[in-house]
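re: ur question from earlier - yeah i can do the single chain one, its not a big deal. heres the input i used so u can compare w yours
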Amino acid sequence: MAVRLDSRRSWVVCTAGIIALGLLSRVFHTGFVIFDKYLGDALYAMMIYGILRLFWRARTAGVCAMVVMAGIETFQLTMIPLQLLASEQWVVRACARLMGVQFSFLDLLAYAVGIGCLYLVDAGAGPSGSRSMPVWTRRG
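and the output i got, formated as tokens:
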């Protein structure tokens, strides 16, 4: 059964599913680093793509999602997230955990794989590239 991601509601449902899978990937561990670490990273990037896809075309959402993810990852090089992790306030520590505190090129690769996979599903599923049209202008 093919899933059509051609409305805002479908993107909200897809993004909610990605968030659920991402949380599950952090709770249940298999012992394989690809599943235990990088699946969650790819799903995190897919979540950003899904959110951006609510507002932009597939290509724009894909590029912007990768820029956002690369920005978050390179921000870790400033060591600010690591300092935030030492805060006494739990909200600040939670934000530091969400951003991540250690830069890794493998994280960037996982982000690219996640965004690329969702982009390929999104952009390639419609007739003659109709998926790249913004959801609020599409008819039919």
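The first helix runs from residue 8 to 27. not sure if urs matches, ping me
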